Amino acid sequence: MLKRGFKSQCERRAVELRRQMHRVPVDPLPATDVARHFEITILSPSEIEGISDEDLNHLLREGSNEWSGFTLGISGHHLVVVNTAQSERRQNSVLMHELAHIILGHQLCAGTISSGGHFVPANYDQDQEDEAAWLGATLLVPRPALLWMRRVRMTNDQAATHFGVSPDLLSWRIRMTGIDYQLAAATTRHR
Fold first, then answer.
1. How many domains does the chain have?
2. 156-184: pLDDT as tens digits
3. Which is deepest, 25, 74, 118, 137, by most CB within 10 Å?
4. DSSP calls for 54-70
5. What is the Cα–Cα distance from 74 to 36, expressed in whole angstroms?
């Protein structure tokens, strides 16, 4: 359950971050630009030094549907590894989710090696995941952008392309913000 006021805080952060980056609320905000703004390194598995061909094959082919991205803290610097086998829009969402963890100051989860030799999270915080999911999606498509897309009569597919997100993420933001309901109610009142 998100803390009271968290959603509104995310909306303000999304608009303020765009302002800091010399953009308006209706501009797309690629996660790679946000990472650059915060000086966060992004790598694909193929850029990780010393990774074996077998592991790389598993991460980007055989097991590419098993993971999307993760964040590491190395010497006080954040590094995000993203699954480049996934679509660009999916990578954008995953990366923004990981960046949201960093922006929110979340503690990185600890990891351990399973008996099969795989890295697995040793702890998991659902509240932090929910917060990162909400902020990440809001950074990608803030409320003013949703209102704008309706005002200019942009289709959901056009808007998803404009903001570099999946149609599912855009539909989720529309539902969660209730903008269609609010715009319909406003139209009814003005008749």
1. 1
2. 999 999 999 999 999 999 999 999 998 88
3. 137
4. HHHHIIIIITGGG--EE
5. 17
> pTM for this structure?
0.89
Structure tokens at 166: 């999946």
Q: Which domain holds residue 107?
A: 6-189
Residue 51 falls in which region: left (phi positive, over 0), alpha (psi -120 to 50) or beta: beta
Q: Residue 121 pLDDT more than 90?
A: no
Per-residue DSSP letters for 63-110? TGGG--EEEEEETTEEEEEE-TTS-HHHHHHHHHHHHHHHHTTPPPPP
User: Phi and psi for 79 in degrees, rounded to 5?
Assistant: -135, 125
- pLDDT, position 117: 61
144 in any annotated domain: yes
Contacts of 15 (CB under 8 A, 6+ apart): 25, 142, 144
Torsion of CA 99, 80, 22, 129, to 10 degrees: -10
pLDDT at res. 108: 78
Sign of the four-CA dihedral 23, 28, 29, 30: negative
Q: Residue 73: inside a domain, yes or no?
A: yes
- Diameter of the chain measured on Cα atoms: 66
Cα–Cα nearest to 86, from 168, 160, 173, 166: 166
Residue with tokens 């923004």: 96
Q: Please tell me the distance from the alpha carbon of residue 44 to that of residue 189, in angstroms, as a whole number.
A: 51
